Amino acid sequence: MLIVASAGAVAAVRPITDLPLQADGPNRWRLPAGEYRGSFRIDQPLQLTCAPGAIFQAEGQGNGLLISAPDVSVQGCTFLDWGADLTAMNAAVFIQPQARGAQVLGNRLQGQGFGIWVDGTQDVSVIGNRIQGDTSVRSQDRGNGIHLYAVHGARVIDNHVRDTRDGIYIDTSNGNLLQGNILEDLRYGIHYMFANDNQVLGNTTRRTRTGYALMQSRKLTVIGNRSEQDQNYGILMNYITYSTLQDNVVTDVRDGSTGDTMIAGGEGKALFIYNSLFNRIENNRFARSAVGIHLTAGSEDNRIAGNAFIDNQRQVKYVASRLQEWSADGRGNYWSDYLGWDRNGDGLGDVAYEPNDNVDRLLWLYPQVRLLMNSPGIELLRWVQRAFPVMKSPGVMDSHPLMQAPTQKEPA
Fold it and tell me: pLDDT at position 339, please?
């Protein structure tokens, strides 16, 4: 195996042209198999393709590869053991602001720091990479798999990230596409902060502490994603406005009891909506979780219709001061515990579904009351609510519940 040794424990960043590159066409270069030690930079437009067995070994220091020129492509390389200093933003591949149009394609990255850091760059493509963190390090001390800061026009597609801190972290970045990524065994699968006009399409999270943490953002399009066996939250919306959640599937969210949740009370919620307004939440499926949907902190004026809430231990948890109608254009949601009927066969229940009456509120405040669920006292309280509606607390009403769960659309 060819080995290019570094000059010392902390080697200077060297140009990629120091390596034994082989011409593969105009401005196209091929790096033969071998272990190349140290940190390298690409400071001119070129396309770099690694032969099988070509490995960048950064020896625990700095970045593996620094891209500082526009129109650079890096494909098929392996990056190992770059620096773990998160304050210094050590990454396997660090893309600087002037590297517009950079492409990072089909690489394998394994280490403790950030995987791919995109720093204030436009029109970057990060496609088909496999990124793995180091499980011997606490998750909060690992870098994120893919980190976008002040980025516009990025395409992050078909990557597989596991065992890093967050899978994909997006901060102050607008107009980007995240599609078809698989994100497993992480803190947060996809983590948005102050990022607007972004698309999140057809991604999958598994065994994260929060699948999709959508924070402080607006005009997000979140369609056709999956959350499987995540902890605490499948989808968390915190200060999200004017956004669309559609055709997503969230199943088997459980209470992780990690103490590392974004908002206290993450006891296995498929969808948690916190202080979020004017959103469209339609045709999603929330199933087999501790809580199907929880709204709080002024999360009102959202359109919630056509969703399916299936076999959740508690379908709805709602804490607010006024009635919420969860149907639109004469069509509500499907509830697996709905006990109404459909006499005219139009597919809609003839009586409204009200999931959180005074009895439910009593159970939230005093869980031990569950021991009395079938007692005459509880039955009397429910009868009084029906007989004297003025005594009802504000809550959720679905006036047109669906008798069958809508067919789930496949992502485009």
Answer: 85
Which amino acid does the sequence have at 127? I
**CATH number, position 195:** 2.160.20.10
- Domain membership flag for residue 267: yes
Say if residue 36 is in the same domain as residue 169. yes
Are 312 and 191 found together in one domain?
no
**Could you say which DSSP state residue 97 is in?**
T
Residue 217 domain boundaries: 211-356+395-411
Helices (H), 19-115: none
| Rounded distance between C-alpha atoms, residue 206 and residue 157, angstroms | 17
Last residue of a domain, one of 208, 236, 252: 208
Q: Is 269:246 a contact under the CB 8 Å cutoff?
A: no
Q: What is the pLDDT of residues 6-40, one digit of tens each?
A: 333 445 899 999 999 999 889 999 999 999 999 99
Q: What is the pLDDT of residues 335-359, one digit of tens each?
A: 998 888 999 999 999 999 988 655 5
Same domain membership, residue 272 and residue 182? no
Element (H, E) at 36: strand 34-37
Quote the number of domains for the chain: 2
Please write the tens of the pLDDT for every residue from 151-166: 999 999 999 999 999 9
Total count of residues recorded for the chain: 412
* Judgement on whether residues 262 and 194 belong to the same structural domain of the protein: no
Q: How far apart are CA 366 and CA 372, in angstroms?
A: 11
Residues 158 and 241 in one domain: no
Residue ending a domain, among 148, 178, 208, is 208
Classify strands 47-50 and 73-75 as parallel, antiparallel or unpaired: parallel
pLDDT in tens, 165-191: 999 999 999 999 999 999 999 999 999
Q: Is the pTM for the entire model greater than 0.85?
A: yes
Helix (H) or strand (E) holding 29: strand 28-31
Q: Does 409 score more than 90 pLDDT?
A: no
How many whole angstroms separate alpha carbon 238 and alpha carbon 227?
Answer: 18
